[in-house]
């Protein structure tokens, strides 16, 4: 089984949570902090997908994207 990109897994989980009527921000935050799959949609395929990327890797990806965007904005402001 090929490992998924952290960003792709987050997007799939986020969309699935929205479609299920859940608050994806709260659900993902709780999952990332607790590493407990109870916060993921009750779908075996989604939980298997999430298991391919450790929660700490997902969190690291979010931080990387957040700070990359912030740094990029600061670079543009300096021009």
| Largest sheet report | none
SSE ordering: HHHH
Mean pLDDT: 89
Distance between the termini: 45 Å
Task: Give the strand content.
Answer: under 5%
Low-pLDDT stretches:
none
Gyration radius, to the nearest Å?
Answer: 14 Å
Oligomer: single chain
Query: Helix fraction?
Result: over 70%
Structural class: mainly alpha
Number of helices: 4
Shape: globular
Tally the beta strands.
Answer: 0
Secondary-structure blueprint:
Blueprint: H1 6-19, H2 24-34, H3 44-51, H4 55-77
Helix pairs in contact: 1-2, 1-4
Question: What does this molecule look like?
Answer:
The chain is built from 4 helices and no strands. With 79 residues, the protein is mostly helical. Helix 1 (6-19) packs across helix 2 (24-34) and helix 1 crosses helix 4. The N and C termini lie far apart (45 Å). 14% of the residues are buried.
